[in-house]
Write a structure and sequence with these properties.
Mean pLDDT: 92
Low-confidence stretches: none
Number of helices: 4
Order of helices and strands: HHEEHH
Strand order of the largest sheet: 1-2
């Protein structure tokens, strides 16, 4: 099968593959992902995409540091958001666990209370940042 892409579509697909490959390769060493990434990268020159070059010594298409850094700006922003979400989630669960030892909740009340606590931590992090976060022994 043949699929035609515009330059813009290719660049978008390239980014999507890079983001997906970056996440997936961190979890599993998947040759199929690597092969698809390399196949897509092999067309970069045809689409006039800068920052991708063939390294003959290793027989791979590699990304320049500049392009990699640009891609990582999005990845870093995503990771920061995930970190903040998970932090709020875990802090809320911890606080709720203490509360639920003192008070009984229905399933609906528990869900509502956990959402309230998560929102409290999200707002706290948003307003004050992570600078005030400390771990006490």
């Amino acid at each position: 099968m043949k699929i035609n892409f515009t330059k813009k579509q290719y660049e978008t697909l390239f980014k999507m593959v890079q983001y997906g490959y970056w996440v997936a390769s961190d979890i599993e060493n998947n040759k199929e992902f690597s092969d698809l990434e390399q196949y897509l990268n092999s067309y970069a020159k045809d689409f006039g995409m800068e920052g991708i070059h063939f390294v003959k010594e290793y027989e791979i298409y590699d990304i320049s540091h500049e392009l990699e850094n640009k891609l990582h700006e999005v990845i870093d922003e995503y990771e920061e958001g995930v970190f903040r979400d998970k932090l709020a989630y875990h802090m809320a669960r911890k606080e709720f666990a203490k509360e639920s030892n003192l008070q009984q909740y229905t399933q609906e009340e528990a869900f509502k209370r956990i959402m309230e606590l998560e929102e409290k931590y999200h707002l706290h992090i948003e307003e004050r940042g992570l600078e005030h976060l400390k771990i006490e022994e």
